[in-house]
Amino acid sequence: MGTSDSFLRAGERPLLQAMSHLAFCNPFLPERVKWEKEVLGKRFQDKGDVWSAHNQTREDIENLAAIQRTAEDLAVALRTRLECGGKGKKEELDWYESLISYMIYYRYQERFYHVIAAAPDDCRVDFFSDFCDDIAYFFGVLPGTRHPSTQANIRLFSCLFQIRRAFHHIFHNIIGPSMAAARLRAAVWQSIFTHDMRRYRRALCERLADVSVLVTGPSGTGKELVARAIGQSRYMPFDPAKKMFTGWKDRFHTLNLTALSTNLIESELFGHRKGAFTGALDDHTGWLEGCGLYGTVFLDEIGEISPTLQVKLLRVLEDRRFYRLGETSPRVFAGKLIAATNRNLEEEIGTGRFRADLYYRLCSDILTTPSLQERVADCPEELDILTRFLARRVAGEEEAEALAGQVLDWVTQNIDTDYAWPGNIRELEQCVRNVMIRGSYRPFRRPVRNRDFAARFEAGELTADEVLAHYCKRVFDKVGTYDGAGKAIGLDRRTVKSRIESLEN
Question: What is the structure's pLDDT at 484?
Answer without folding.
Answer: 78
